[in-house]
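Build the 3D complex.
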Amino acid sequence: MISKIEETTPFIKNFEDVAQSLLSKNDPLWLKDIRQKSLSRFRQLGLPTVRDEEWKYTNLSPIAKNIFHLPTTGQIIEKEALQKYITQAEINIVFVNGIFSKELSNLKNIPKGVTILPLEEAFQKEETTFKSISKKFDPEKETTFVVLNKTLQTTGIFIKVAATSIINNLIHIIHVTSVAKDSIVTFPRTVISLEKSSEATVLESHVAFSDDSTYLINALTDIVVEENATLHYTKAQKESQKAYAVTNTRVWQERNSNFNGMTVTTEGSIIRNNLDIILNGEGATGTLDGLYSIYKSQLVDNHTMVDHRVPNCQSNQLYKGILNDAAHAVFNGKIFVRSIAQKTNSYQLNKNLLLGKKCLVDTKPQLEISADDVKCTHGATIGQLNEDEIFYLRSRCIDKRTATKMLARGFVDDLLNTIKSDSIHQKMNLLLEPSLSAL
Amino acid sequence: MSKSTDEKLSNERTIEENSLSSKDYKYGFYTDIETDHFPKGLSEKVVAMISEKKNEPSWMREWRLKGYRHWVTMKEPHWPNFNYGPIDYQGVSYYSAPKKYNEKKNSLDEVDPELLKTFEKLGIPLTEQKRLSGVAVDAIFDSVSVGTTHQSELAKVGVIFCSMTEAIQHHPDLVKKYLGSVVPYSDNFFAALNSAVFSDGSFCYIPKGVRCPLELSTYFRINAAESGQFERTLIVAEESSYVSYLEGCTAPMRDKNQLHAAVVELVTMDNAEIKYSTVQNWYSGDKEGRGGIYNFVTKRGKCLGKNSKISWTQVEAGSAITWKYPSVILQGDNSIGKFFSVALTNNRMQADTGTKMIHIGKNTKSTIISKGISTDESNNNYRGMVKIMPSADGARNFSQCDSMLVGNKCSANTFPYIEVKNSTAVMEHEASTSKINAEQLFYLRSRGLDLEGAVSLIINGFCKEVFKELPMEFAVEAVKLLEMKLEGSVG
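Done.
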């Protein structure tokens, strides 16, 4: 216990200082109130250690050793690389080092029915929507990193799609971290609200185009999908190889709504994704797919939670990963089926392909079921490439490395091909390229 | 140390209750036999007293005391997915034996006939002439072993099968070498407690190259009120030997919870195999969840030699709370660990059970098949761990855990931990949860089966993979046990 206190004190102190500087600002009272409350809860929770069941396999002590600062500049150095990644014609919302960049963003062609506001403005203009969304997620269950984000949120984006609007354009939110002298910390905050019978496609990218900066990203994305609405949501992560990222995504689904989610992760020193889905209306369908391709000594930790609160809902999860070198993957999927949630149909599978000699996998697919008329299955596999398949390819004069790549590609494409938007598909290929060609 | 009036009253009540609800739990009777027991409480003195009572050598006493001293420093664990009230460790009597029990008996004829009757009532005839089936039994009544059958026959092939007390007296070298080698006294809270106060248990040693001609069996019976049972079983299989071992348990119905904290250790050398089967039917408490046994057991096997094999088969149908994870440490190259389990919970029973497979040697293999059935308001958990260490090249695991829910007040949970530290490992895990298929039920009923018959047939099919691993007599008993338990909870 002593070591825990010693280790995490600087971390907590670090963020207390940052919080104090924010509290002196002229924010609306209720926001100050959230900050105050979250800060005291953050103090109470502290930084989790490997003794916490939720963090059993992910050691945060490398993060705790650093002192992080709020970024001071929103300038990007690797502008060209970024231009290559974004498509000009789409709706682009760009944050550089957590600071909104008007110059790089494209908010010109916003279709009718879509409201996009910086968080500061949304706090005032959309106060009621904002409050009703934050009420949906139980503050008692918020974890350290959720409350930390809530304490220190400064910038962010608010997206609302009005009832019955179908948006075909891709809404692309990009969080770029550019080289900074000090270790910086950013707190991206995104709030997406889809009103009744609307549909939209959102891509949220966390990217860096240099490999040697150390920083911490603590993101919080809240999504509400109302009746009959459909959201296609992709989260892409390609951080610097020394970066730490903890993302929290919370989804609330109403009757007959559809959440089609995908998380693609490559590169980063320690990446932890928490994805919570609450199915609160009958007939809702939640899909949470994930893909990770990691190498060197990177760690990717995906924690998902699906809460079936009402009858007749469906959830599907497929997480696939390729591990090379000494990479470490963690997967923990929880499915809760409440006692009234009869006729639930829930599926979960985690597949890992081990290509490196020293890679590690810790997986824990977990079911907690209190209703009897349900169909729930989960599974996990860990294995290597099929030798027969490699032999077949080699007998066709394909060298071993290419054969491995081809098979790995097939493993990945299985999931990538489910992405409907071509633009997202292309972008994901671009991000996955370095890790796949390193095989 | 005779019984207090209090105890007598509670016994009368138990007997009365028995006659009323004997349909639910037919082993709930109680034997009125004079006992010799220690006053309640636990201290170094009590540990020393147990050791003295058993006339143990000093190294054994030291070992117990070490266990006790370690236990004092530990905290009662509460991580499983169930709740239980505080256990008063000072409110338990740590030694209880039938009064007419003497240290050593020449033959079973000298055993108190009252005791023999008890075991007969349980369906375990101890008198050898009545025995037809080829099973050697070690019967444990409260804290002591009351008789071991077929010892002479086993001695002919060199197999040692006796109570732990005897083993400490007659085979101290073997006990000293292996006791605590798989489950050290510092392993966990209940193992430490057991190390300090264990009163008896079975010891079994199969010499090199011997295939044990009989199935060995231990029958555990808790009789006294306000006592716990802390037994310790140790089985050692030398090179190229084989033994099949069975374990059965029952207890009277009482409205207070009783603690059963046993430790089982298995060791296999090169090419040896141990098959360990359990049919656990401790009293599980009444419909409101009063009474019943807390079954907190540490069971672990170690495949020490190459090509060795350990398999655990368990049918868990009793206990208010079952909390156990029979595990296998796969240390020898090419060793194999297997785990087959059926856990049935009804009324307000809670079960958190599963296995641990630790792969250390090369090309080690493990299989886990777990079937959980929960009915009424019970809570059934599978918690398992498969750990593949960096040294375990070519390790292979297959796990399957299925749960079936009968009724909508029960719950079934699965917590598999999979930790792979070697990239040549191949492992698969699958789990499903479902209810009894309505179409299958309809089919059977349209063929004239009543609802209970149909449900029991489907559940038997669901558990078949596990039942077929059990020795024949046990399989029959297990099927009957499930039928009895499911009675009244369906429909």
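Residues 1-5, 7-23, 102-106, 128-133 of chain B have pLDDT under 50 and may be disordered.
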